[in-house]
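Lab meeting prep.
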Amino acid sequence: MSGARTPGREPGPEPGAGPLGGVRVVELAGIGPGPFAAMLLADLGADVVRVDRPGGAGLGIDPARDVTNRNKRSILVDLKAPDGPARVLDLAERADVLIEGYRPGVAERLGVGPDDCHARNPRLVYGRMTGWGQHGPLADRAGHDIGYIALTGALGMIGAPDQPPAVPANLVGDYAGGSLYLVVGILAALHHARASGAGQVVDAAIVDGTAHLTSMIHGMLAAGAWQDRRGANLLDGGCPFYGTYATADGRHMAVGALEPRFYAQFMDLLGIPDRAPARDDPARWAELRDAIAARFATRTRDEWTAVFADSDACVAPVLSLREAPHHPHLAARSTFTDHGGITQPAPAPRFSATPTAVRTGPALPGADAEAVARDWDLPRRPDTVPDLAPNPL
């Protein structure tokens, strides 16, 4: 008999646990977008149990500082051990969601694929995170963020026209096109499962999500309002009043003065209102860009920040990762938080009735075996219990 909980019998969320309090998630350890998606669910209050493999996931980050494992718990399971798959299926039977990020077919070969899990828990939402998706000519190929966004056209839009495309870290593919779409899919499927009693598989491919992010641009392209090349459009740096400029101290300011009234304030505060008419003549954009660049080069970033403070000119300083938490606005909103000596982004978004928080630091591999076994009422398997314990140091 399935150990899955029935609708109406789930425990209520603990105070401050977030809107997903009472939701159980199994995360089969991986790297990149899968762990981030599981962190987001954990931030929202889900009880996320990360199934770590002996030896770690492969990136070599100190587990105590890997904030993508905050608000989670961890056990160790060797899926290649004789009883490893059974241990994961015991968890899946009691879970609402499972997340895996293997190449297509690997979970099935290990004995923890969708059919195996749904045989034990028909209500389970089985989330699959890959770069290329579960089918297609590239499905079995290795890959990383940069390759996924390259094929979707997203990478080709970013950067100066006379330079190679700029690499946007792994934010566009792994996290925006991958993690966030996986979480949206999981929440939608969870809603369906609670209403119908039927779980399903969520196939979240980074190529699909990243392509979806470009929807507005494709609409503009079809309407003739976007040129299919870098640095020639309103939002890709081609427009001189939507871009970045160097300041006298080698730092940068970001300008987004698109609307006419914001643009008028921008030009006035910048000190070159006589150049304002060039806005409406793309043939003069190069001239306008040079004039704006020359003005920004006369003062430091902090001096320009003071000039544009309290205005609607849509100008902001370009801050570094270490500077950002100290910006007055972000500090006032507690956009960043300190937990366990690590400065990190606070959970987002915010909820009026079920607030979220960083409740615990990064889960250390295997550290929560006993608590998870107790809380999830897992069957005791004496022959494999030692695998649950953390590796001795």
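Slide two material, second protein:
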Amino acid sequence: MRSSRCRPLLVSALLCAAVVLAARPTAADGAPGQEESDSDSGVSAQVVRLYRDAAVATQRYEAARLQAEAQRARAQRLEELLDRERQKIAALREDLGRIARAQYRSSGGLSAAAHIVLARDPDAWMRGQRVFSRTAEAVDNVIGRNRRAEARLAVDEAKAAAAWQVLDRRNTELAVLKQGIEQKLEQARWQLQGRADASVAAGSCRGAVRLDQPSPRRTQEWVTPVEAYTLSASFGSGGDHWADLHTGQDFAVPIGTPVRAVGVGLVVRVSCGGPFGIEVVLQHADGYYTQYAHLAAVTVDQGEQVVPGQWVGQSGTSGNSTGPHLHFEVRVTPQAGSALDPVPWLSVRGAPVE
């Protein structure tokens, strides 16, 4: 009896196993899915790389801008010096004209021999010679200072012109480089978002993309979910976009921005459908849960352990979203409807949101 009862169960189990084996894709059948995943990783990695390139270009552009301001201040000081030099030269030329006019009036255009003949006595002639000699020396000194000042002026003007040319050329090159990177980044962002929208429409996740991310710094137990941001909709705010009050804090960031785990946790949910679009939910050791929603890609799998600062996804505008941002929630359960204000929750843990 016992054996006969087990036999139908055994047959059913074998049939089920056969169906499962038949349904499993072969290596060839699975290849397109792998290619799709690799393609997703490529787009996500391209966005990350372009973000880094844009950051470097922005830093270089900012350094060049600061250098331009310093150069502008130096050029202004140089221009002030040049103005003073020009004023000195004008004064020297005026001195030359005055000396020449005085010499002409005193000598009357007579030669030195005529002065000797017309002198009343030798002493008067000697005094006249000394005055003449001093006058000639003064004229020579003024002429020399004038020539040196004009030479310095020419050199300084040439230096200033060359410095401005170099600066203008460098700023133009950096501006073109930065603009090119930003255009490529914008194209890659929307390509990434297009794949996210396709996943949400299908209601199935494409799987985690593995990115070459920096090693998280373990100096902090808690961090903000994104590194640089602008705060938008806050917890408890009202609006036409939500059936009830807003249940999280929104961080306005461009598509593809790395989204970080705020603390040590376990990935308990990765979902790609519904109003939150692509979302990740983490469980933390203190019993709280954090949600990261409207993503364009996920970089973790369900069941994976994460550390503070580790990337769990890339921001986007999937699901019920009016623009690129990260919707961040803190919950007391994994499900929606148990949220609390995440801003003070992060602040008391040493990760203030400003």
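Talking points for slide two:
The beta strands are 230-231, 249-252, 258-260, 265-272, 278-284, 289-298, 305-306, 311-315, 326-331, 339-340.
DSSP finds five helices and ten strands in the chain.
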